[in-house]
Amino acid sequence: MRAASRARLFLAGLAVRHSTAGQAEVQRPGATAGDDVVGVPGRRAALPVTATDHLGALAGVLATAGWASRPRYEEIPALLRVFSPHLPALGESVWVKPGVGGVPWFVSSSGDPIAPCHDLAGAVQGIADRLGPIAEAAHAMADEGRRGGR
């Protein structure tokens, strides 16, 4: 089987398993994590990934990159508020939306796609591209204010 065919089958499987409703669903009735997949001995059923799972993973990577975030999973759709620790009043609310073929994407509060959910590095870069210049300007103004006050 060619690599392109395997990739298409893999992505098709992801599209079937991904749910962005924010609620955990199972692949088949009665399946639990760890059950054998019907007809595939040794293959385990996995619970589908939800929007909150994607947002939680993004929050972890954002924290490593120096961004602060606050989950707002009680909202519909579930949101992740992302902001600079130096400027908490200004930020971006990110949510998950199914894209082409059902592949979930991170989407900005303005509705612009940021990156597919499997590309966490791309999502962090997309958010940094949006918020970085504003955060840098706020940080520079704060530094200038501290120096001017001495």
TrEMBL record:
Top-level taxon: Bacteria
Designated name of the protein: Uncharacterized protein
Naturally occurring in which organism (per UniProt): Actinomadura rubrisoli
